[in-house]
Design a protein that fits this description.
Length: 64
Amino acid sequence: MSTSIKKAIPKKRGRPATGKDPMLAGRVPAEMIEAVERWAAQHNLTRSEAIRRLIQLGLDVECN
């Protein structure tokens, strides 16, 4: 009797992706982070959302 050999599907390594958008990272001075956090608190936003909105505001001003 012959036995069948099943091919094992290899497991993917690492944490699964949480979002579809690419991540952007950079170094920011502590004073700027504090200013962003204050702005975020005034607008009831998370730090990430505040950074995205501030970048968009800067791009909108530059393009007009």
